[in-house]
Amino acid sequence: DAGVIQSPRHEVTEMGQEVTLRCKPISGHNSLFWYRQTMMRGLELLIYFNNNVPIDDSGMPEDRFSAKMPNASFSTLKIQPSEPRDSAVYFCASSTGTREGEKLFFGSGTQLSVL
Amino acid sequence: GESVGLHLPTLSVQEGDNSIINCAYSNSASDYFIWYKQESGKGPQFIIDIRSNMDKRQGQRVTVLLNKTVKHLSLQIAATQPGDSAVYFCAANDATGTASKLTFGTGTRLQVTL
To answer: Mind listing the pLDDT tens digit for each residue in B12-30?
Structure first.
């Protein structure tokens, strides 16, 4: 089992550019979560999907952030346009999506630096 | 300008001693709790979890204790080793409907000294 796979591992971009982060959840998992981790705020939930449908996006900072899950094996988090304050580590996690399987499995994260 | 970050509490223990990391949660409706370990440059890794119908659960060298009355959770690590050095996070679920999400605490840094 390869676990949750995120790409890229590192992304350095300039302010104003579009950034797309990618995630492949564990096969068979029905829920997918995007978290952001910073020194200022710790680990924050941005959005989560259940069966490819966004359930709660209240953590998405603003309209510059969008997330999609076109199928059960792929999700993207897009920032357009990016700003320096978006610099953080972005984690994707997945779970079975049931009350009995609430344990999250995290990817290795994408370290984003916006200059 | 000056930046202010989260002040992570740090627990420093000697190798071989037992470690106890504490966590408070706020949602009295939470019924699932979990501990994660995060090493530098990696994603959080699952350590142990517990449901609210239990007050203690043991794993390999780790024990989680749950006190629902005061909404407190603790992680005990026996015979702490240098490889246990990391940031430890507790999380509690928001159990509404069939889907569930976890809310994480700010974390505690564990430093193991030789």
So the answer is: 999 999 999 999 999 888 9
